[in-house]
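so my prof wants the structure for this chain in the tokens format not the other one, which i didnt know existed until like an hour ago. anyway here's the sequence
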Amino acid sequence: MADKIRIGVLGASGYTGADLVRLAARHPHIEIALLTANSHAGKPMRAVFRHLSHLDLPDLVTIEAADWGSVDAVFCGLPHGTTQAITKRLLDEHPGVKVIDMSADFRLRDPAVYKEWYGLDHTALDLQEEAVYGLTEVYRSQIADARLIACPGCYPTAVLLALLPLAGADLIDATDIVIDAKSGVSGAGRGLKENTLFCEAGEGLSPYSVGKHRHMAEIEQEVGKAAGLADLRVNFTPHLIPMSRGELCTTYVRLAEGATWKTLRERLVETYAAEPFVTIAEEGVLPQTQMVRGSNYVVINVVPDRIPGRAIVISTLDNLVKGSAGQALQNFNVAYGIEETTGIEQLPLFP
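here's what i got, hopefully its the right format
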């Protein structure tokens, strides 16, 4: 590819935006042409994120001051409820631009479900109809032709990669799924919140959004589709862990008749044998966040439950990379016909 693809990052002052910039800066086919952050407009990126001081980047500007004509693709890391109007205006004025959205605004196919979970009316229904859910390993062919890609949330990415092959093959009872999820503090965003202050989050483990976390809707949407079940419900409880990044989901499933935990594991091995970023750990090896930190990799495994007829599926990823910015770049590569691993081949950082 002779010419570089000019990209903009909206919401570049957030953790997700910063990780997108970190990864995109070394992508051989990308030129970072636009960075927005309304609260830090006018500042150089190095003043907001010191670890990016080595890079020659455009200064941050407001959304209103953004020159959309300067970009070929936009990565959107804005809060839910703000992305729809901006995306609609952008694509109306520049229909040739591709939008890789890392917010929640286009993930849910049913506008009524979106309103139920986010409390807002969907204002871009025509775009919702063309949006492709950006779980790369599942929707790769649709992503290749998409103009608007709705990247999944971090929790759904970890859970769905582990469960969709099992639900789709009728190896588990999709109506009996219990997910115990844990995430580092960066998953709560960069804004000031009391529960993420050092003294509040440190040296402790805290459940939050119990029974009502918005990522439940994505999980139910996709597992329900794979299993052929409408109005599916899952039990999902997230927890905050005092570490910067990383996510681990322990999912308890009921086996379908004739299935065993080994059957489940074999199905995952078969499904992901050719996937560059999904690893099924060796039998008996338990996934840990240390296996994926700073990388676009996912590690999954299945272990037996001592309760007959049940199994435990464990999956882990870095919430800011495969759970967000890395997956967004993976989708960008697919959408532009670039080798899928380009720019996101970094190995996990340990210790």
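also thought this was worth mentioning. DSSP finds eleven helices and 14 strands in the chain.
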